[in-house]
Amino acid sequence: MGGDDDDEWEKIPEFVKERSIIIPIGRQDYLSIPMPLGFQFLPNIGRLAVEMAVYKDKTLGRQMASLFTVLADAFNPLGGSSPALQIAAPTVLDPFVALAQNKDWTGKPIYIENRNSLDPQPGTQRAKDSVTPWAKGFAEAINAVTGGTEYTPGGWSPTPDQIDYVIGQLTGGLGREAGKVAATAAAPITGEELPPYKIPLVGRLYGNTGGVSGQSERFYENITKANEAENEIKGRVRQGIAVADYLTDHPGAIELAARGNVAERQVNALRKLRHDVVKEGGPETAGRARDVNERMAAVMRGFNREAERMQ
To answer: What residues make up the domain containing 61?
Structure first.
């Protein structure tokens, strides 16, 4: 019902597919109805089997691991199975463990990491989605106090997403919903993208695979694969090991690595441009920021398609 040449189904977060009945209501829009706790493993058996038959990257080993995770989640009395370290850690340490792993309780990345240590960026330039005004203020203040500037990181330069996450953990459900209200109210003014999961209440039942938020998780997964391919090729060359065998098994590795580097540079430049546009302000801020978001989503979407073809 929801499939097309863009494979919109694959863009839906795995956490949502594991725990909800997905009803497509458009090309990129869907409703997610939560299934009863403890019973969600039943429909997942069929879903994982079908995905293994349809998608090339859904191997038997990967799908069996996913099924094990679903089963553990359904029957674990501690209330979850992923990430495992957060379950084992005392509750008071969960936020610190989550930030160290860069995964929230759903397994979704909390913030955008500084992937190039030789070209560090301040946390304010790595804001993932529409964030609260106070998180931006805290991030800028911490960066400035520790010796950073608008363009260079200080001794400690957290992203606004990290600060929003910590505030949400400290204040509970009420604080998280208040943060969503603030982000929803600010999005039309700043022009920053408002992903469905940031909309109060509505985000629990509605999702969308379009825009930057719908592409970013898959984009950075593909960037990681591109970097792994590049490291494998460079490592073999340095050690004098033949690359031909690796390229036989991975014929698109060189192209994937090259295109990945280009796409990552483009996205980083656009993210910085969006930060400057929002910082500058003005009557046309919202429109200009939306244009940058659309360009960023287009770059991510294009690379995701190419990465799928090359792999």
So the answer is: 8-82
Residue 169 and residue 107 share a domain: yes
CA 231 – CA 118 distance, rounded (Å): 16
- Given a cut of 70, the residues of the chain with pLDDT beneath it are 1-7, 76-84, 86-88, 118, 129
* pLDDT attached to residue 81: 53
Q: Do 299 and 260 meet the contact criterion of CB atoms below 8 Å apart?
A: no
Same domain, 179 and 216: no
Question: Can you spell out the DSSP letters for 246-262?
Answer: HHHH-TTHHHHHHHHHH
Phi first, then psi, for residue 231 (nearest 5°) are -65, -40
Measured from the Cβ of residue 305, the count of other Cβ atoms closer than 10 Å reads 14
Task: Burial-class residue 79 by CB neighbours within 10 Å (0-12, 13-18, 19+).
Answer: exposed
CB 256 within 8 A of CB 226: yes
pLDDT in tens, 193-228: 788 888 888 888 888 877 777 788 788 888 988 999
> Residue 210 corresponds to which tokens in the numbers above?
């379009």
